Input
Amino acid sequence: MRALVLGLAVSAMAGFAPIGSASAQAIKPAIVYDLGGKFDKSFNEGVYQGAEQFKKATGIDYRDFEIQNDAQREQALRRFARDGFSPIVAVGFSQATALEKVAKEFPDTKFTLIDMVVNAPNVQSVVFKEQEGSYLVGLLAAMASKTGKVGFVGGMDIPLIRRFACGYVQGVKAANPSADVFQNMTGTTGAAWTDPVKGAELAKSQIDRGADVVYHAAGGTGIGVLRAAADAGKLGIGVDSNQNGMHPGKVLTSMLKRVDVATLTAFSDAKDGKWKPGVMVLGLNEKGVDWALDDNNKALITPAMKAAADKAAAGIVAGSIKVHDYMADGKCPL
Amino acid sequence: MSAPVPLPAWADRLLMPLLALATAALAAALLLFGIGENPADALAIMLRGALGSGEGIGFTLYYATNFIFTGLAVALAYHAGLFNIGAEGQATMAGIGAALFIFAAEPITQGFLLIPIGIVGAMIFGAVWAAIPGWLQAWRGSHVVITTIMFNFLAAIVSVYLLVNVIGKEGSMQPETRLIADGAQLWTMQAMLGALGFKSPSTPLNFAFVLALLAAFAVWVLIFRSKFGFHLRLIGTGNDAARYAGINTQRMIVLAMALSGALAAGMAVNEVMGVQHRVVIEFTSGYGFVGIAVALMGRNHPVGVILSALLFGALYQGGTELAFERPAITRDLIVTLSGLVIFCVGALDQLYRKPLAQLLARREPG
Output
């Protein structure tokens, strides 16, 4: 199967690029970002960073496109595919329907879809177990909290963000069963991802109610959440990218979702002839999600906290700790 | 928004929009020049992208379909003196309505009967969503500009609630419904031309474009050739005069808003039944707001609305091509460029009225 796909890919590229050996091919990578845009300080930007890393390491340039509306998803994917780009990274679950269609039209082009699954012989789907990473930062939040009250600010109220929240609550309760978790969603439209003012207001109201650690899963809105927590002398928790450095010493940790690694891997694998279709579920075990520990938050994480987080991570990897996935049944047990 | 300085019709309807466009083009050229791009090249790419290929034309007309519907919605209400800012929300609700009607009818029929059912569903939902602010205006005196803006937010909230909790697809991260049945999907232009023996590229352009043109004709007949339209325009020119003339102005205001909402629903028909084949969150993408600029530039006349909708369609598609071709030109710059055009044709529209009137008056002594 893999050989077949590879063969197809090579023959597809014959038209515009010299055929290299199977181990190092000349590739023309491309990215189609989601509506959030390239520089959202979070999810899309992670993809951008991965692509930039690839460019730096290999000298191979890439093209990208930021869509403005839903109709452009298909247009952009088709346009890149027709111009001979491959692999094409489609960022975000919203691309799935368009990708499904375009992937069928261009069976020789490699597509990598991030955050959603499309089953097609030329599509690689990368999804993450956000609940596992959120569980760990929840655990850390509960241990860092002096008041026994922690907060969560989500972006748009969608199942994916409830999955973050649910994992977080489970982690908090695992460390402190009597802890209170305040949860707020910023909004119900796409604007909820880019509203730092409202994010700050929500974080402040949670802090007023006694929360001293606030985790956000809200894209650009989270910038306001972290700022409000830092201004109030409390702790924030970042998401997706490592946001510890935004307010050093005031960000407890960040829940990392390694879309940058996923992008870099997709590009490099395509270059090395190792790219293969199928579903990749990246959890703690695959280092697809993690929590960030660096110089900025070293002082905040006590050895006991680190030990507890490591133990929980090992438990999740081993399967002795089961983190419930909200999206499996649309419910959160806690 | 009355015109204080009179102008000959040709100058008002043709010259003024063109002058406004030229202003926008000049500002855009300066902007492009400022970031080191050649404005002439950019214009060439935009023109070629919008009109230079079958695919480009398809996308241009697809965008234009949305703008014709929302432009007509704004224009019709405007003739009754109502400024409907709510086409966005009305289209959102209309999309929900189309999906609900189609889903309800699917167990009974899978055939093309679903298409009129979906369209009726969209129109009812769009009309009701617009009629409520109309009613509030007519009987409670709540200004329709304020209420329609608020109803946009309400529509967004209601649609998210429904898409996430009620009619959303199980296990989907994207708040969206499942696909509507094949029978409910409007014929694509590709399929329609294919049936006639022509080959064409795959674009979102579909039968809704034909519906949009029919709607424009219907609006023209309604406004300019019917008693109802006469009453409508009478209200638009003076509410008191209309009342003294024996017109039930309150009823007319509600009706005008309902019709306006039903027109905005056409945009949802295009997106939901013609392109996406499902209701996706925020499928309206701001087309409702652009409709305001389309109506203003088209002087609230159906023909003008079609022309300015084509222009905005070309702008959208040409802008997309520009962003593809020139990595230095980002999405945000494209938004800025369209913003400049909207600003110039919408807000600065009257800028040249006075100098132009003086100029013309000098040329025609007496």
User: Anything to note?
Assistant: The first strand of chain A starts at residue 30 and ends at 33. The interface with chain B takes residues 37-38, 63-72, 74-76, 78-79, 93-94, 96-97, 105, 115-116, 156-160, 188-190, 327, 330 of chain A (CB under 8 Å). Chain A has two domains: 2-128+259-282, 130-257+302-329. Residues 155 and 186 of chain A are 5 Å apart (CA to CA).
